[in-house]
Amino acid sequence: MDIKDIQANKGNVDVVGDVVSKDSPRSFDKFGKSGRVCNAKVKDPTGMVTLTLWNDDVDKVNIGDKIHIENGWCSEYKGEKQLSTGKFGKIEIVGKAAVAAAAATMVLTNDPHFFDQDGGDDDAEPVEEEEFLD
């Protein structure tokens, strides 16, 4: 199903899209239970929709992820469609964010000899600390 075809107050939504933004999560207490919720925007080539993430799904979904919503529910709030997993749906991550994958392999260091195989260049002239000051 395309995002443009999602209808408010309908269930059985099956859609794949990319998460393009995600709000900060907020906590709630309702009927004696506490939880977390946040909104995200999901888009495909046909449009964009607000996705409401509940509890464990808040941490599961990140900006840049490609997700598959299966058996979702679409409601409407202030004239805007809002998609969620509802009681019976689920979210599957079908593609992780490229930024997260790159960050997992990124190396940050202040050691100028980190990439030298022998631990340093013995022929190089020593660099004085003052040379780096403005």
Short description:
With 134 residues, the protein is mainly beta.
Structural account:
This protein has one domain: Nucleic acid-binding proteins (OB fold (Dihydrolipoamide Acetyltransferase, E2P)), CATH 2.40.50. It has 134 residues and is mostly beta strands. A hairpin with a 2-residue loop joins strand 3 and strand 4. A 5-stranded mixed β-barrel has the order 1-3-4-6-5. The protein contains 2 helices and 7 strands.
Give the topology.
Elements: E1 10-22, E2 26-30, E3 33-44, E4 47-54, H1 56-60, E5 66-77, E6 80-84, E7 90-95, H2 98-105
Parallel strand pairs: 4-6
Antiparallel strand pairs: 1-3, 1-5, 2-3, 3-4, 5-6, 5-7
Tell how many strands the DSSP assignment holds.
Answer: 7
The CATH superfamily turns out to be Nucleic acid-binding proteins
How does the helix and strand content classify structurally? Answer: mainly beta
Count of alpha and pi helical runs: 2
Roughly how many Å apart are the termini?
58 Å
Strand percentage lies at: over 45%
Structurally, the number of domains stands at 1
Q: List the uncertain runs.
A: none
Q: What is the N-to-C order of secondary-structure elements (H for helix, E for strand)?
A: EEEEHEEEH
Name the CATH architecture.
Beta Barrel
Overall body shape: elongated
Q: C-alpha Rg, in Å? A: 23 Å
Order of strands in the sheet with the most strands? 1-3-4-6-5
CATH class designation: Mainly Beta
Largest sheet: 5 strands, mixed, barrel
Helix content: under 10%
CATH topology: OB fold (Dihydrolipoamide Acetyltransferase, E2P)
Q: Mean pLDDT, rounded to whole units? A: 85
